[in-house]
Specification:
alpha+beta
Length: about 325
């Protein structure tokens, strides 16, 4: 056994460690849990007499220390080299620049709308994108078989009860009015879904901003002034016209156009909230009145940024997205 230990000592001493792979090979060869040379020697101690066990135990323990010391020496040398490399770094050399992302144009418009209306006392609220029939249609004066449902053909998730992807953010209006008492000014923005053919001007999903104001003696003049404030905040002083229109949940109703780049462009719909809608959420229409308006954020961004195709919003093309900055 003496000769075997001498050979192991020589092997430990002569083993060249140049890389961390060499170091791991060295460690496993001598200190591995199952087949390590020193580990096996410790296991064989129990086969010899107690008198010799103490002597050889110390010798084998010294072998283990030699292995561990050789590992420590290699690690300490490499730590010094690493530190020297760090010291050689020139802190005055500019680092690699990190590309900063830009805000999506739809997010820019959304944030701007929220900022505009918060300044005049509106509260921003949100609601679920998955709705039931009552909140999305019936409570808004659109009962089953009403012709206007054809204009908002949507995606039903289940029947009895009818659960669907909301077609407008007006469902948020119903939910809010059920839980709160007038007066209130509320703005809601979110995704809405309709079964429409995807083209350069339409998509099955788009973002809608809706605002409503309910109080005593709210008039159409209040609505016009609010719309004027919104449009001039985006476009400055432009020509605005209100065209009579029809929405089941407002009466009277109007489409709003602006004169831009030599043509009239439809920008939003609005109207006085139908008294029946107020009654549906237990608000006394003899005391309170209100108005509501809604606009598509994609359409607004098309006009502001002169974008020709609505589908580009959802292509995730970094060349398109990096053009936009929140300039408002």
């Amino acid at each position: 056994m003496d000769k075997e230990i001498e050979n192991i000592k020589k092997e430990i001493k002569c083993f060249h460690i140049k890389t961390y792979n060499d170091l791991e090979t060295f460690r496993i060869k001598f200190l591995g849990k199952k087949k390590g040379i020193v580990t096996i020697l410790f296991k064989e101690l129990k086969k010899i007499t107690i008198c010799k066990r103490k002597i050889y135990g110390k010798i084998i323990n010294d072998l283990k220390k030699e292995v561990q010391n050789k590992i420590k020496i290699f690690n300490s040398k490499n730590d010094i080299q690493k530190n020297e490399k760090v010291l050689k770094l020139d802190p005055t050399i500019p680092g690699k620049s990190i590309e900063i992302g830009s805000i999506h144009p739809l997010s820019i418009i959304r944030n701007r709308i929220i900022d505009i209306f918060i300044k005049i006392g509106f509260t921003y609220v949100d609601g679920p994108e998955i709705e039931d029939d009552w909140h999305n249609f019936t409570a808004l004066n659109i009962p089953i078989f009403h012709p206007s449902r054809d204009m908002q053909d949507t995606f039903f998730l289940c029947k009895n009860p009818d659960i669907l992807l909301r077609t407008h953010t007006s469902s948020v209006q119903i939910r809010y009015m059920k839980k709160h008492s007038p007066p209130f000014r509320v703005l809601s923005i979110g995704k809405v879904y309709r079964n429409e053919t995807i083209s350069s001007r339409s998509n099955f999903m788009f973002h809608q901003a809706e605002g409503f104001y309910i109080d005593q003696k709210v008039s159409f003049s209040d609505l016009k002034q609010t719309i004027h404030y919104l449009i001039t905040s985006f476009f400055g002083e432009v020509k605005i016209r209100f065209r009579p229109s029809y929405f089941p949940f407002t009466e009277p109703s109007a489409e709003v156009d602006i004169y831009c780049n030599g043509e009239w462009l439809e920008i939003m719909g609005c109207g006085m909230i139908d008294p029946q809608v107020l009654e549906n959420v237990n608000i006394d229409s003899e005391i309170y009145s209100g108005f509501a308006f809604g606009l598509g954020i994609e359409r607004l961004a098309l006009i502001i940024y002169q974008i020709k195709d609505i589908r580009i919003y959802f292509d995730n093309d970094i060349r398109f997205l990096r053009q936009f900055k929140s300039e408002f």
